[in-house]
Every structure is written in structure tokens, then in C-alpha cells.
Amino acid sequence: MSTHTSPATHLITGAGSGIGAAVARRLLDRGDVLWLLARDAGRAKELAAEFPGAHTVVGDLAEPERLSWALSHQTLPDRLDSLQHIAGVVELGSVGDLTPKVWNATLAANLVAPAELTRLLLPQLRLAQGHVLFVNSGAGLRTNGEWGAYAASKHGLKALADALRWEESGNGLRVTSVYPGRTATPMQEKVHRQEGRDYDPERWITPDAVATTLLTALDLPRGSEVTDLSVRPTA
Predict the structure, then answer these.
(1) Range list of H helices, the chain
(2) Three-state DSSP class for 183?
């Protein structure tokens, strides 16, 4: 966080559920200013109701090429202490079965949209000497069968974060990638359905535990940064 004394300002994707919702609640509770990205106006209304006092911005991560136009027609914060990429999509399938439609949709939401959103908000981040946080995945470090498209998008997200860290360190930006193992979220429930397995949220990391990890990196004193952090369920 920067050293100015006014409340910190954060823009978060994926605040509607899971890890994003846990982070948003924690930051709102401590008095920070939130801007939450919603895919459409209806979702923006739901987020505004769920997080009273938060601002909303409409932009569809499924269509990264439209984000520039969408954001240019809305009010944005003048400065950003953090940009938190938490939204993501997953479709399991073998390389022999996955179609270009699935590959393109996965890469658009999980990789191209974070790159474009970062590009569009860099002026505000540089002004605050802010922090870009990427919620990656264990799949961003290793790949299993049926996970090719998702893992490729997350491996790419690690490369994006690493390149950004090199490029923006001279501007005072910090960049963190967090690699959670399986976390008890709606996405995990969907994964279990695709795997044909029973879903037991008690077996997995809580969204709040991942939120704590993100806030720990965010609140680290100036002059140091957490670059990469893996969080796993305990056996």
C-alpha cells in the first residue's frame, strides 16, 4: 500500500463469490474504497446491494477487446492502490476433445482480460505506486490431464505477472501471484461435477484463508514484495 493517509482504493474482479467476495468484505470492513468489476448492469446492481458503499464498473472479461470502450464510458478511480484479478473460468476436457471455442473463452477470461485490464489501469496504479495481485492456481505451476486449457491460461498468467513485475518495478509497482490449491468456491463445485465426484467443501481451503494470503501480501511494508505464494489445503 502507498504511504498516503486516505483510505486505500482497490479494484477487484470476481467479487461476486468465493475468494473475491471474501477479499471484498474484508477490505470494506476495514474502511477501504472498493471498485468492483461486474460483467453487466444487472450484476453491478447485485454487487452494489451485497457490498454497500462499493462502486461498480461494468466490463465483460469474456470480451477483453471491448474493455477499453466500456471503461472509457464510465467513471474510474483517479488512483489505485491495488488491482486484484480474482475472476476466472474453468472447463475441463482432454486435448483431444477441447474445441477452439473453449480454448479461446478460457484464455480470454483468464489471461487476455487481466492483461488488458492491467494495461488500461496502469496510469492509476503508477500514480499510487500500487499493487497488482493475480489469483493464479496450482494449475499455474503444474498440469494434470483434462486441465490443459485452464492450466495453459494460468501458466500464461504467471508469465504476465512476471513480465509486469520487471517492467513496472521502476514505477514503484508491486506484483504478486498467489497459487491456491483447491478452494471451497462455486467454481470448485463445478469442477467436481465435471470430474463426476462428490463435493465436500470441508476438504478444501476456505475462501477467507486465500483472502488472508492476499491481504498479507498487500499489507507488506514498502520496500519488500511477495512475488509468488502457494497456499495448499492441509492434509
Answers:
(1) 18-29, 41-50, 67-72, 100-107, 113-128, 148-168, 186-195, 207-218
(2) strand
d(CA 212, CA 23): 8
Phi, psi of 139 (to 5 degrees): -70, -10
pLDDT for 219 equals 97
List phi, psi (to 5°) of 185: -130, 165
What is the model's pTM? 0.92
Tell me the pLDDT tens digit for each residue of 91-115.
Answer: 999 999 999 999 999 999 999 999 9
Q: Which amino acid is at 128?
A: A
With cell 486435448, the residue in question is 95
Rounded Cα distance between 95 and 112, Å, is 21
Q: Which three cell numbers stand for residue 175?
A: 506484483
CA-CA distance, 27 to 211, in Å (whole number)? 10
Distance of CA 159 to the CA centre of its chain: 15
**Residues 162/118, Cβ–Cβ less than 8 Å:** no
Helix-, strand-, coil-residue percentages of the chain, each rounded to 5 = 50, 15, 35
Taking the CA of residue 92 as centre, how many other CA atoms within 13 Å lie in the half-sphere pointing to its CB?
Answer: 15
